[in-house]
Amino acid sequence: MDEVTVVVAHSERATLRVGDVFLKVDADQARLDVEVEAMSLAPVPTPEVLWRKPPVLAVAALPGTTLGRLGGPSTGSSAAWAAAGAAIRKLHDAPLPPRPGRAGRSIVALAAELDDECELLVTNGLLPADLVTHNRQVAEAALRPWTPAFTHGDLQIAHVFLDGDEVTGIIDWSEAGQGDALYDLATFTLGHEEHLDDVVAGYGTDIDLDLDVIHAWWSLRSLLAVRWLIEHGFDPFAPGCEVDVLRSRM
Q: Signal sequence: where (predicted)?
């Protein structure tokens, strides 16, 4: 009999693996709606939806392995990272989905959220004031007008599977929608700056890719994540994770 493995679990949602099936449990029906819709529209490989009975979505496991995870060693050749970049570009060039995603929050709302979060990080003693202040300044470059693209919204390297140098699928689409393409590229390379050039090579240099904005998203995303991660049982202070990303910007 196949064992049940907890892939990730916190108060908002949980993902379990039973053999070759992933069971995603989410009390927010809208997130599951977004996920199923995005997978049906995305022009890149996605998991097969096996069945759905709210609050559970069952999808098939993907072949291959990921390029690693945040805080862990990066794996894969330069060609593999470039192949991931090419897949991301294919997604960004696709017709827009019907609604904004996580990467599509308004500049005004995002700036307000960031300022509130920075204040809480300092007043609660979670991070030194100079570290927060400097990264808030770096993050400012991300708060600019952008052209909407079809974005994944949570494109961690653990969500992209490859077999050799071929992308076999991308998982976890609950944050997908219209958004800033550079947010996806920054999320994918967060904590693995050494592979940014490979990803950009695959993505293509025929468009204006502002690397300062990608760096800004690294700071912004990390600042917004630290407190949430602590409150949900994760460790952003682990080597190579969000706090180290913030320190690397100093």
A: none
